Amino acid sequence: MDGDTKRDVLRVENVAKRFGAVTALSDVNLRLGAGEVLGLIGDNGAGKSTLMKIICGFHRPDAGRILVDGEPVELKSVDHARSLGIDTVYQDLALVNELSVYHNMFLNREPVFLGRFLDNRKMRRLAREHLADMGVRIPSVDVQVAQLSGGQRQAIAVARSVYSQSRILLLDEPLAAMGAKEGALILDLVRDLKARGEVSILIIAHNYAQVLEVCDRVNLLQHGTITFDKETAKTSVQELTDLVVAEYRAARQGSAGPAGQ
Amino acid sequence: MRDMTERAVSQTATREPQGSRARALLKGARDQFLRHREASVLIVALVLGAYFASASDAFLTHANLVNIWQATAPSAIVACGIVLLLVSGEIDLSVGVVAALSPFLMHYAIDFYSIPAIPAIVLALLAGTLIGLINGFVTVVLKVPSFVTTLGTFYFITGVVLTTSHAYPAEIPASVDNAIGTWLGAGDWAHLAWGLIIVVIFHVVLTRTRWGLHTIAVGGNPLGASESGIRTGRIKIGNFMIASTLGAFAGLIEAFRIHTIDPNLGGGTGLMFTAVAAAVIGGTALAGGSGTIIGGALGALVLAELQNGMNLIGISANPYFLILGAAILLSMIANVYLTRLRRGGRVGR
Ligand SMILES: Nc1ncnc2c1ncn2[C@@H]1O[C@H](COP(=O)(O)OP(=O)(O)O)[C@@H](O)[C@H]1O
Ligand SMILES: [Mg+2]
């Protein structure tokens, strides 16, 4: 484990986060190796999105620390995390319906000329090329995002983060609104990225079969802490399902103790 | 690479059933209309102009055209700020009284504190900027809804204007009652020139700059915008400052035009309501995320034409409000309907 530490691109140590009376995360420890795809699973409200938003600089943790490439970092903003190579596809996608596809793809990192004027031509061209590159099919990059299907929107959001050439990619339920075909597209994309080995990916998902299909390792987040950490080769859909069901049973019997191991 | 998306487009195009060319044409016309919402307001402005010109020989005289653009410019200028604010999801009810305050500040600075002309004018404008900053701070940082914040500043500033002026009009100070005054509103062309310059600048700001794009993003999806790293508070506060500064500027040029500093400029709320009406008629949605500066300016023109034309053909001023009310309601209904069209991409859903 200690030998691996240097190769971990991302470490989360003893991170806690409360929202008023709600403790979203109590004590989270997590590591992401270089070129690794880590699946994060857990019930609704377990704190998965909160953890992701801490890693991407959106929330600041109440306790604990984040290490990027072994160096402790205090993430001040989304832009700051982005400058360190951390990029995110949020669960709510963070797309602006009123804007065109290409403006969404470059939101807050728009190429400009003369310091402040939008270089629309460049954005349009790059967006078109990049989406075609990824096999994402949309009528035109000029349409408003509001006109696209849920799956197309998801694809745009993923394409946006992948395009940013980040080293650490955080995907919060990227398969949620997708049909089978579109889901396969995203999974293929994750596999492509993994094959290139330039980016490490943390992916939150509910479909355990898909998680096992693309991830190297799986973590389970329960009651604000990681309760399970295994390589995908050593676990199964059955085991993951059992763990979550056990938690549900325990909760119903009124005992709040952690399930699993 | 690129032709892949284009191929996808042509595929969907050929998949359409035969004989639907007429429908495609209609759809094309509708898309154009949706994309250029300003065009419909322009058409209304032209039709109104043609009607009044045929009904009254006086309408197209030079003197009357000056009247029309002098009535248009202040509300168009204030509408620029209102549109930016509405697009970012906020509103400012205090711009009209900021317009009343700023010429008084200029007057106090020059006549009571012996400040030279230009610095006094700059001071009056900066006071507007500061009021915008306060509006923005209370709204964004203290999280008071802007409707309430600016209702508060509206009454507060009204109080400041009325107490300090004892509710009496003041004269334009001698040191600005010269070429400065001519340039800033007393001259026949001043309103037209300032109106055009400011409208063009803010049209470019809204449609061609990061600031404008982020303004739309903040109003359209506040959470998504901040998740993308946009500093949404900064954008909103900035737009409050722009709106209030433009209010102050509109107040100055009005004071120079009427050659008096009037504590009840525009009846206190008149300028603000006209500007909001112009923005709404021009196609700006109150919900945030969409709006156009040109539309707002054309909205101001339509309102000015109506008031002026009805006056010329001898209709009393009162039905003007009937028409204004109907125009606002129709525009809003059209907005809602068009937004739904755009969202659904289809009619009848
Ligand atoms: N911004 C917030 N303010 C208040 N409570 C929040 C906020 N974000 C998340 N929470 C709460 O924290 C808990 C974890 O939420 P979340 O991280 O979204 O869970 P998950 O993504 O695993 O479903 C939930 O109880 C949620 O209501
Ligand atoms: Mg979540």
Describe this structure in words.
The complex is a heterodimer of chains A (261) and B (349). By secondary structure, chain A is α/β, with parallel strands linked by helices. Chain A has a single domain, classed as P-loop containing nucleotide triphosphate hydrolases (Rossmann fold), CATH 3.40.50.300. Chain A contains 9 helices and 12 strands. In chain A, strands 6-9-10-3-11-12 form a 6-stranded mixed beta sheet, sandwiched between helices. The two termini of chain A are 19 Å apart. Residues 256-261 of chain A have low confidence and may be disordered. By secondary structure, chain B is mainly α. Chain B has a domain at 73-291. Chain B contains 15 helices and no strands. The longest helix of chain B is centred in the C-terminal third of the chain and has 27 residues, at 232-258. The radius of gyration of chain B is 22 Å and the shape is globular. The complex binds adenosine-5'-diphosphate and magnesium ion (MG). Magnesium ion is lined by residues 48-49, 91, 172 of chain A.
List the helices and strands and how they pair.
The complex is a heterodimer of chains A (261) and B (349).
Chain A: H1 2-5, E1 8-19, E2 22-33, E3 37-41, H2 48-55, E4 63-68, E5 71-73, H3 78-83, E6 86-89, H4 101-105, E7 112-113, E8 117-118, H5 120-134, H6 150-163, E9 168-172, H7 180-196, E10 200-204, H8 208-214, E11 217-222, E12 225-231, H9 237-252
Parallel strand pairs in A: 3-10, 3-11, 6-9, 9-10
Antiparallel strand pairs in A: 1-2, 1-4, 4-5, 7-8, 11-12
Chain B: H1 2-15, H2 21-35, H3 37-55, H4 62-87, H5 95-113, H6 117-140, H7 146-165, H8 179-186, H9 190-208, H10 210-220, H11 222-227, H12 232-258, H13 270-281, H14 293-312, H15 318-344
The complex binds adenosine-5'-diphosphate and magnesium ion.
